[in-house]
């Protein structure tokens, strides 16, 4: 018995080794081929690849269609996903001889499931980089470089990719993601329910400083003692700032300025100014209580009348959306001007998984999704008649069918997470110039001097892990005004230094200087 | 008879164990786990370099020891009390009710704790402290209460579950022993001491050994969700698991995460071998292996 | 047991009632908050006396009845199949191991116990189950990985066999000419009802409450169990709490279910167990009588 078991144990080890080797080999092969000519030309796909776009149809009839696997964020019911799959396949089969198979994953579990799929060598072609960072995906070999493939099979995408955006999604001059159609900049401000703002009476465009804001909030609080002027969205404060965080880890530069000196965020005047005010406001009862532990969305808080406003990102459509959900118009005080950093562009894009068995087809599909309005509509809004109905055919405006709304639809519509929503229909209530306005917002935003740079945290991973733990202790408590900055900030800084924050900042500076020199 | 089980354990547990090597590698999935370069102990550095190393180790071990001691005493005590109750209906109701906390997801528990402790509208501040004329306490920013709160929540959530195990063992004890004891005129206390506790001895030892093997682990939900990740409480609630989570949330580094798990396993392994050795010296039958 | 001091019994009940309240109060809070109006919840916090009773959460869940009923179906199927298989496998392992004369007993025990300490991690397990056993998006994904047989249960049952079943009983059965499998089914099992019931309950609960397998291996909503459904909602909230979301903030915030709905799903996950459990308890009692007769 004993011998048998020992034998068993040995076999176990042997088998586990083969298992991992096997996976390794699979991945190794695809990696090698991908590298060799930057497009995976393994035997079977070679003929496919060689076929010029012109003989696509001929090709289509003779070969079994390839199934392009997509992973999208947001909920979808199984039967609706099936319907969308079928509708898209109907279009793609004659055009590129491909079917699609969509997997939708809720946003709370997306990171986990996408990571598992990307780590296991599972077959997957395209996915949205929601809550994922393309740098770490690329360094750990979970995604494939796309430049050559795009030049061959994605000309329409390349045509529309601006030089700035291209740099922001590139690592070592290789494109790793195609950004979606959304705002690629941000700015911050304060919003307040319009009825209360009118009662207080002020001109939003004249408010520029925290002290002016304080005056308004104090008046509002006096008029409505049971409501708090500053509410949070879960634990997001939306601190007004113009910082470029340069990627993971501490160390920022001012996106609005010319200087490229990396500094510790908590030592900046703007940060100190904000946390000092928050502490004061919190003491004065202007900030909702237990703000640092808030588990409610601001929409619920505003709807219930517990809070009357708060800081907010002012990306196009954001406040309109809040107003629609809450059922009240809002007055907006703009506190910072729009700026754009690398993360604003690369934060949401579509990448090519290294588990793809036919990267050329995948890119052909992505290209089609960018140009074909029917496919785009299916991906963004689902199936007509099932997930939406036309309200205005000429203007392309849609709405939910009878009895369906955002909370029970079988196909959650998230335009900003879909390849190219700019060619899809608009939902009722959205401004008709949504996409033009977005375009204008993006192009008018101030570009950070480090836009296109991305920090590689590998050499200082230990320090970042330690710094993150210090941040968890202080950052939210300071930003919500729970702790006294006069006492806490020096302690915070000491602990950060002990955790190695300076080493991270120095490394960031070094990499940034090298990048600036190379990209003059 | 052993074969089906062994096959399952072999597949489910031993085949993936090759993954332990991830802790010593810099993983690149494109070349595969096996071919990824070795990096020695580099992935472990972040656990030891930090100033927090002492705090998180101390917290993890102290909390676990407290859970083991108090948890066992309460669960055994309640199981013995249950065994004394002869009204069927009452015993069944108690048994059902004390299992309730185990059934509630820890995240939901964290909302309920917040319901009790929230500064403005919490039950404790509003309905207990206020009538007593005590000023409301800002629970989530006052660290000194939290060791007690954590222990209370942990015991509350788990004692019904371990109680079932002890109770099942108790009802399995041969009734004739008690009958003989009663004839000999043994008191209730003596019966407990000489029949009940010895009957539970093996199971108590086994469960304790198993807890010792997990002494470097902590329930993430209990230490992260229940204190609502509140900064002011971190020194007192940070354990190895929460430290690793907070540290790696931004890095997405599977090597470092595996290293932490490997470290926790090794410590548990050494401790449990040691404890098992001691148990074996004293009472051969109760040892794990 | 004949000793019947009244004071002792009163004290016993007193302690048990105290513990019962200690366990019931938070559950009551859960139940009440699931029927409190969303606005009242946000304004007044969780309260034992709701200012406004509101069944919207349950109504909402029932209009979407397809998913709740389906989720119950998945949960029940997984719990029943998983528990039965688990108990059979556990018994088959634990019985031989309880025999002192089994050669290599300690080695096998160690082989089992080792799995409690070391694991290869999620990614290798996921690779194996999905790439070689193809269980992704099948009902088996909720049953097989990690939960079909655990070291903890084997050790528990083995301990019970060694400490509660006298060798004399087994010897006697052997002398009567019983084969090993006859001894197991005719002698050992009837004497082991309490541990079978207990482990059955514990395994059943872990299947009922499991959501991690669902999170890892299932993306199709028609395979979501009730706990996967609940935990998906909770994860959505946690995601929004932990991510400073720019550009997707309001869009996603609006799609998170309200607190009352989360509480209602939690209640729906707990209630069936509360209903079934008392029926289950009879096995504990049966165990005593059978054991007493044989012993």
Folded structure, characterized:
The complex is a heterotrimer of chains A (520), B (289) and C (295). Chain A is α/β, with parallel strands linked by helices. Helices cover 47% and strands 12% of the residues of chain A. Chain A is built from 21 helices and 17 strands. In chain A, helix 3 crosses helix 4 (78-96), helix 4 (78-96) packs antiparallel against helix 17 (373-381) and helix 7 (147-153) packs across helix 16 (359-371). Mean pLDDT of chain A is 87; it is low at 1-60. Chain B has one domain (36-286): MetI-like fold. Chain B has 13 helices and no strands. With 295 residues, chain C is mainly alpha-helical. Chain C folds into 2 domains: 1-54; 65-294, Orthogonal Bundle (MetI-like fold). Chain C has helices spanning 6-34, 38-44, 56-63, 65-97, 105-117, 122-132, 151-164, 167-175, 180-191, 193-209, 212-217, 226-242, 249-253, 259-280, 282-294. Chains in contact: A-B, A-C, B-C. The interface between B and C is large, with 95 and 102 residues.
CATH class of chain B, anyone? Mainly Alpha
Q: Tell me the span between the first and last alpha carbons of chain B.
A: 19 Å
Q: Give me the strand/helix succession of chain B.
A: HHHHHHHHHHHHH
What is the CATH topology of chain B?
MetI-like fold
Task: Provide the number of structural domains of chain B.
Answer: 1
Helix coverage percent of chain B: 55-70%
The name of the CATH superfamily of the largest domain in chain C reads MetI-like
Mean pLDDT of chain C: 84
Overall pLDDT score of chain B: 90
The gross shape of chain C turns out to be: globular
Fraction of residues in β-strands of chain C = under 5%
**Count of discrete alpha- or pi-helical segments spanning 4 or more residues of chain B:** 13
Give the name of the CATH architecture of the largest domain in chain C: Orthogonal Bundle
Tell me which CATH architecture of chain B applies here.
Answer: Orthogonal Bundle
Query: What's the CATH class of the largest domain in chain C, please?
Result: Mainly Alpha
Count of DSSP strands of chain B:
0
Largest interface: B-C, 95 and 102 residues
Low-confidence stretches of chain B: none
Q: Main sheet of chain C?
A: none
Q: Helix- and strand-based class of chain C?
A: mainly alpha
Q: In angstroms, what is the radius of gyration of chain B?
A: 23 Å
């Amino acid at each position: 018995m004993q011998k048998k078991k020992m034998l068993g144990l040995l076999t176990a080890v042997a088998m586990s080794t083969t298992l991992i080797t096997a996976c390794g080999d699979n991945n190794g092969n695809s990696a090698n081929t991908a590298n060799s000519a930057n497009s995976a030309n393994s035997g079977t796909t070679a003929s496919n690849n060689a076929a010029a776009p012109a003989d696509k149809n001929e090709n289509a009839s003779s070969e079994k269609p390839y199934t392009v696997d997509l992973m999208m964020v947001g909920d979808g019911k199984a039967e609706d996903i099936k319907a969308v799959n079928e509708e898209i396949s109907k279009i793609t089969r004659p055009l590129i001889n491909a079917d699609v198979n969509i997997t939708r994953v809720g946003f709370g579990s997306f990171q986990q499931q996408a990571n598992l799929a990307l780590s296991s060598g599972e077959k997957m072609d395209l996915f949205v980089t929601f809550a994922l960072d393309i740098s770490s995906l690329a360094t750990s070999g979970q995604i494939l470089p796309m430049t050559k493939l795009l030049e061959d099979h994605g000309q329409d995408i390349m045509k529309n990719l601006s030089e700035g955006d291209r740099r922001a999604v590139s690592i070592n001059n290789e494109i790793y993601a195609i950004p979606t159609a959304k705002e690629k900049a941000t700015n911050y401000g304060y919003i307040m329910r319009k009825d209360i703002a009118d009662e207080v009476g002020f001109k939003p465009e004249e408010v520029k400083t925290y002290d002016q804001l304080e005056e308004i909030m104090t008046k509002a609080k006096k008029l409505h003692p049971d409501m708090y002027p500053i509410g949070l969205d879960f634990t997001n404060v939306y601190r007004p700032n113009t910082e470029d965080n340069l990627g993971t880890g501490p160390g920022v530069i001012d996106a609005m300025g010319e200087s490229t000196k990396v500094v510790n965020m908590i030592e900046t005047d703007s940060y100190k100014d904000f946390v000092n005010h928050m502490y004061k406001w919190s003491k004065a009862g202007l900030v909702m209580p237990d703000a640092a532990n808030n588990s409610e969305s601001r929409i619920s808080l505003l709807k219930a009348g517990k809070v009357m406003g708060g800081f907010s990102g002012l990306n196009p459509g954001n406040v309109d959306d809040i107003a629609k959900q809450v059922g009240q118009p809002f007055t907006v005080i703009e506190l910072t001007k729009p700026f754009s950093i690398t993360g604003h562009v690369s934060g949401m894009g579509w990448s090519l998984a290294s588990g793809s068995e036919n990267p050329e087809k995948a890119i052909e599909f992505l290209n089609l999704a960018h140009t074909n309005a029917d496919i785009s509509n299916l991906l963004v809004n689902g199936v007509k008649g099932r997930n939406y109905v036309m309200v205005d055919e000429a203007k392309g405006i849609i709405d939910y069918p009878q009895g369906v709304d955002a909370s029970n639809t079988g196909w959650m519509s998230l335009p900003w997470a879909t390849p190219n929503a700019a060619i899809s229909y608009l939902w009722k209530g959205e401004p008709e110039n949504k996409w033009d306005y977005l375009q204008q917002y993006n192009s008018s935003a101030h570009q950070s001097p480090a836009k296109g740079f991305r920090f590689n945290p590998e050499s200082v991973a230990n320090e970042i892990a330690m710094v993150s733990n210090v941040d968890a202790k202080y950052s939210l408590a300071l930003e919500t005004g729970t702790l006294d900055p006069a006492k806490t900030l020096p302690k915070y800084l000491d602990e950060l230094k002990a955790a190695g924050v300076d080493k991270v900042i120095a490394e960031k500076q070094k990499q940034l200087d090298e990048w600036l020199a190379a990209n003059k | 008879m052993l074969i089906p089980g062994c096959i399952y354990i072999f597949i489910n547990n031993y085949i993936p164990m090759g993954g332990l090597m991830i802790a010593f590698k810099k993983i690149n999935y494109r070349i595969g786990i096996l071919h990824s370069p070795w990096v020695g102990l580099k992935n472990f550095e972040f656990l030891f370099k930090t100033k927090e190393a002492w705090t998180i180790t101390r917290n993890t071990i102290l909390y676990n020891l407290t859970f083991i001691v108090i948890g066992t005493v309460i669960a055994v005590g309640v199981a013995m009390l249950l065994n004394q109750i002869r009204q069927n209906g009452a015993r069944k109701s108690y048994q059902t009710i004390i299992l309730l906390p185990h059934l509630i997801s820890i995240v939901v528990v964290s909302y309920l704790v917040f319901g009790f402790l929230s500064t403005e509208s919490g039950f404790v501040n509003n309905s207990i402290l206020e009538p007593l004329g005590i000023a409301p306490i800002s629970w989530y920013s006052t660290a000194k209460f939290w060791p007690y709160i954590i222990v209370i929540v942990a015991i509350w959530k788990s004692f019904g579950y371990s109680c079932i195990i002890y109770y099942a063992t108790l009802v399995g004890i041969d009734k004739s022993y008690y009958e003989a004891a009663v004839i000999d005129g043994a008191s209730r206390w003596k019966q407990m001491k000489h029949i009940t506790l010895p009957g539970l001895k093996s199971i108590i030892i086994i469960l304790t050994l198993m807890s010792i093997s997990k002494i470097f682990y902590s329930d993430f939900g209990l230490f992260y969700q229940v204190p609502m990740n509140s900064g002011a409480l971190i020194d007192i609630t940070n354990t190895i698991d929460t430290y690793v989570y907070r540290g790696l949330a931004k890095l997405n580094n599977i090597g470092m995460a595996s290293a932490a798990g490997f470290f926790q396993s090794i410590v548990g392994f050494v401790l449990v071998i040691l404890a098992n050795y001691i148990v074996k010296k004293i009472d051969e039958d109760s040892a794990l292996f | 047991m004949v000793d019947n001091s009244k004071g002792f019994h009163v004290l016993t009940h007193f302690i048990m009632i105290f513990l019962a309240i200690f366990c019931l109060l938070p559950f009551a809070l859960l139940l009440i908050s699931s029927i409190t109006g969303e606005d009242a919840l946000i304004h007044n916090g969780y309260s034992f006396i709701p200012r406004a009773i509101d069944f919207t959460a349950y109504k909402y869940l029932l209009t979407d009845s397809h998913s709740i009923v389906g989720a119950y179906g998945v949960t029940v199927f997984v719990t029943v199949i998983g528990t039965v298989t688990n108990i059979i496998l556990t018994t088959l392992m634990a019985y031989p191991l309880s025999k002192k004369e089994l050669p290599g007993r300690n080695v096998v025990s160690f082989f089992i116990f080792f799995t409690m300490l070391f694991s290869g991690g999620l990614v290798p397990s996921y690779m194996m189950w999905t790439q070689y056993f193809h269980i992704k998006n099948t009902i088996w994904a909720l049953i097989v990985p990690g939960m079909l047989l655990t070291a903890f249960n084997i050790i528990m049952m083995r301990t019970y066999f060694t400490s509660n079943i006298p060798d004399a009983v087994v010897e006697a059965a052997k002398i009567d000419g019983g084969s090993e499998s006859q001894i197991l089914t005719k002698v050992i099992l009837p004497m082991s009802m309490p541990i079978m019931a207990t482990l059955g309950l514990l395994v059943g609960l872990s299947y009922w409450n499991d959501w991690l397998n669902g999170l890892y291996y299932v993306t199709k909503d028609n395979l979501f169990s009730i706990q996967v459904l609940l935990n998906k909602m909770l994860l959505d909230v946690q995601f929004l709490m932990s991510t400073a979301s720019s550009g997707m903030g309001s869009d996603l915030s609006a799609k998170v279910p309200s607190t009352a709905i989360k509480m209602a799903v939690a209640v729906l996950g707990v209630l069936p167990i509360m209903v079934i459990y008392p029926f289950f308890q009879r096995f504990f009692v049966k165990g005593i009588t059978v054991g007493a007769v044989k012993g």
